[in-house]
């Protein structure tokens, strides 16, 4: 996926997540995202100082979640891109970009024609949530904020028909991991199913 297309997809998805988990930051989303895209590594480089990192170079501004959300969404899109590449090894970069974009409900409306109809398995959604939690934790946000962020991203990937069951499984798995019944990274990730008629359950 080209840098410009990935950046556009990242900002589109991140804006929706910000609207849900930190709506008070929406007026500043454009300026914060522009700063992030100039140097995405600055988010992780500054993680040792929480206020400095979350303020993201905006003077005396209070800590912001938007840079964290942008970083986490970027990492999730990288994961999805690699999963699609594994399943469509001979596909063009244009098709891979279309497939990754189509995994998000926002860009996959029922009447829209696409070359491939895709969905993620519950296990893949669980892995997305795990990645989101891990990356948010690296940037020292609270556990509550990290969970809200991870759930928001997962909700945007779950298909409309399977959203309830998939998210139920994600949250059950999270509870099981929390009480220590199974290692948090033990679930295998199934191959993406590109059949138009099949379900990930």
List the defining traits of the structure above.
0% strand, 60% helix, globular, 201 residues
What does this 3D model show about the protein?
By secondary structure, the protein is mainly alpha-helical. The protein has one domain. It contains nine helices and no strands. It has helices at residues 3-21, 29-38, 41-45, 50-55, 66-87, 93-102, 122-138, 143-157, 163-178. Helix 2 (29-38) crosses helix 5 (66-87). It is globular. The model is unreliable at 50-55, 57-61 and 175-201 (pLDDT under 50).
Give me the number of helical elements: 9
Using the CA coordinates, give the radius of gyration.
17 Å
* Low-pLDDT segments, ≥5 res: 50-55, 57-61, 175-201
Q: What helical percentage do the residues reach?
A: 55-70%
What proportion of the residues form beta strands (DSSP E)?
under 5%
- Overall geometry: globular
Element-level helix/strand string? HHHHHHHHH
Structural class: mainly alpha
Cα distance spanning the termini: 28 Å
Beta strand count: 0
Largest sheet: none
Whole-number count of domains: 1
Calculate the mean pLDDT score and round it: 75
């Amino acid at each position: 996926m080209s840098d410009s297309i990935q950046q556009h997809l990242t900002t589109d998805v991140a804006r929706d997540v910000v609207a849900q988990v930190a709506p008070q930051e929406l007026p500043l989303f454009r300026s914060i995202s522009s700063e992030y895209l100039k140097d995405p590594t600055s988010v992780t480089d500054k993680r040792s100082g929480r206020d400095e990192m979350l303020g993201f170079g905006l003077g005396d501004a209070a800590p912001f979640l938007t840079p964290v959300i942008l970083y986490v969404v970027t990492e999730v899109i990288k994961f999805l891109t690699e999963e699609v590449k594994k399943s469509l090894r001979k596909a063009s970069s244009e098709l891979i970009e279309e497939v990754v974009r189509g995994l998000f409900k926002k860009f996959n409306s029922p009447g829209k024609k696409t070359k491939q109809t895709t969905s993620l398995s519950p296990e893949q959604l669980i892995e997305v949530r795990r990645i989101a939690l891990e990356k948010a934790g690296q940037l020292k946000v609270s556990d509550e904020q990290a969970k809200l962020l991870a759930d928001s991203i997962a909700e945007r990937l779950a298909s409309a028909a399977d959203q309830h069951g998939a998210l139920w499984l994600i949250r059950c798995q999270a509870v099981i991991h929390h009480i220590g019944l199974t290692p948090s990274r033990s679930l295998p990730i199934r191959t993406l199913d590109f059949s138009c008629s099949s379900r990930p359950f």
